Every structure is written in C-alpha cells, then in structure tokens.
Hints:
Blueprint: E1 4-15, E2 18-30, E3 35-39, H1 46-54, E4 61-70, E5 73-74, H2 80-86, E6 92-95, H3 99-102, H4 109-120, H5 126-139, H6 156-167, E7 174-178, H7 186-203, E8 206-211, H8 214-220, E9 223-228, E10 231-237, H9 238-243, H10 248-255, H11 295-299, E11 304-306, E12 312-314
Helix pairs in contact: 4-5, 5-6, 6-7
Amino acid sequence: MSLLNVQNLKMYYRLRAGYVRAVDGVSFTIEKGEALGLVGESGCGKTSIALTLLKILPRNALIVDGKVIFDGKDILSMDEETFRREIRWKGISLVFQGAMNALNPLYRIEDQIIEAIRLHEPETSKEEARERVKKLFELVGIDPSRSKNYPHEFSGGMKQRACIAMALSCNPKLLIADEPGTALDVIVQAQTLKLLRELKKKLNISMMVISHDLSIITEVCDKVAVMYAGKIVEYGDIISIYKEPLHPYTIDLVNAFPKISSKRQKLSFIPGSPPDLLYPPKGCRFHPRCKYAMEICRKEEPPIVDVGANHYIKCHLM
Length: 318
Ligand code: SF4
C-alpha cells in the first residue's frame, strides 16, 4: 500500500467571477521512502496541492472532489481536531517556500521549534524538546550551539536548514519541500538539495518536492509529475522523463534548460503564457501554446495514456 494515494483531487478557489480550477483532477502516489517531484510553471497548482494535503487552505478554497489516502487513512474526511493531532506535522509536514521569511524574526529559532513540537506533542516537556532541537540541528548540519540565535543571525542557507529541522521536528512520514532552491545562490542551493538527499536516505522518509525547475527535481526525486494548468500531463520515473520526455509541454520544459555538456545553442522557450484558470481553454489546456495542436485538441480533453513502465501521458498524440 502506498504511503500517499491521491485520487482525482479537485480544489477550486471561489471568486466573485467564478471558480479558479487550481487543482483539477490530479492523481498520484508516493511510496514509503520515495520522493516525488511536482514540476511546472508558476500558478499551475503545485503549491495548492501541498496546501490541500495539509488542509491549510484559504477560506475561499473548496475541495470539490477526490480522495486522499495517507498511511491508510482517508484524510480529507477527517475532522479538524483529528487531522491536527494525527496528520499535520506528525504525518505530513511542509517546508514553506522562501526560508528567508518563514521564520519569525522576533523569536529565537530554538523557541520556534520547541513551540512547534509542544503544540503537536503536548506531552513533551520543554527540556526534552530543547534536546530534540539540538539533535535536529546536528541532523541538518548546523552547530547545535547556534540554536539560541535569532533568524537574522543566520545566513539564507542556514535559515533553509532551520526550516527543514522544524519540519522534521515531529518525525513526519512525508516531508513536502516547496521550492527548496528559491532565493538561494547556486552553491547553497546545491547544499540544500544534498541535505534533502541525505535525509531521505538516512531517515527513509517520503518526500514531495515542488519546483518550477526540473533540474532541482532530478537531484532529489525518484519520479516526477509534470503539471500544467491544474492537471498532471506527464507522470513517471525521473530518469526516463528527463532523458526522453514525451508530452509536448515536458519536451519544451526540458529544452528550456541549458545543458553544460551540449554545444552552445540558443535557448528555446515556450511561447505564450499559462491560461487563466478562471476560464481555462476547452480541450487540452496546453493547446494554445502547443506546436502539435490538432482540431481534436481544441475540443476534447485528452485521456491519460499508460505508455508502459509506470509512465503516463495526457495527450492526443499518444
Ligand atoms: Fe498538444 Fe494536443 Fe497533445 Fe495538448 S493534446 S499537448 S495540444 S498535441
């Protein structure tokens, strides 16, 4: 049984003008110890999936359809109290996007992590929590003597590590990292990805890594779900998708990144911009930007096709 099984998840934001279909029929699984990458342009629904899994959605958000089975439990139908006690932080935790702003500047980092631990495990004493913070700091490669520092005394990379330590503080089974490389220079970014890889191995923890950058996903993940306009358009193991993408959007996405080993050439880009999800285009949502678009693409939504070896494509060309 998969640790996480998301089936036909739909989550919309209600606006005066109608519904923004941010997550529109998304299905995927994550096994124990496995890392899944969610990749796609900004606004394609990646972070909305994470917020839905943790049920920390804004008030105008509606979970319209779907099922989420986590560790054998149907978590969408759980009441808030049970969800808070059993799932949030203890089962699934999130490293928020932008470590620079995720920590409260007014409190020592140690106190922020202690508060998180004791909020979800009230039986843990302050002293025990303090000891745990020291171990967490060691785990993420920060000298435990720095735990009494304030956030402004940490560099960007250290803040990112402290946020990861906080997310691990209640021993979750699934860690979600939202854009772990954002706002970090390339060296610190590489160190953060190395840390995530090491943690996955050491703790045998499952991960969901969200990024607009496919190369970040390839560093950490075993498989990838490529998202476009609220839907998964290609899904499968990371090596085969990166080496031989089949969906026109994934092909464009892979070609948009420079390759160190290849000849110097002009970078390609995807013309146009993602659709407004308040009024998504009919048929395939990628058709206004797709160079292979056919008549059927403008009228009918493509089905998900199994092309073998756990590789799935949502495209009329298959
Ligand atoms: Fe392009 Fe049609 Fe495939 Fe959509 S379904 S990606 S428009 S070929």
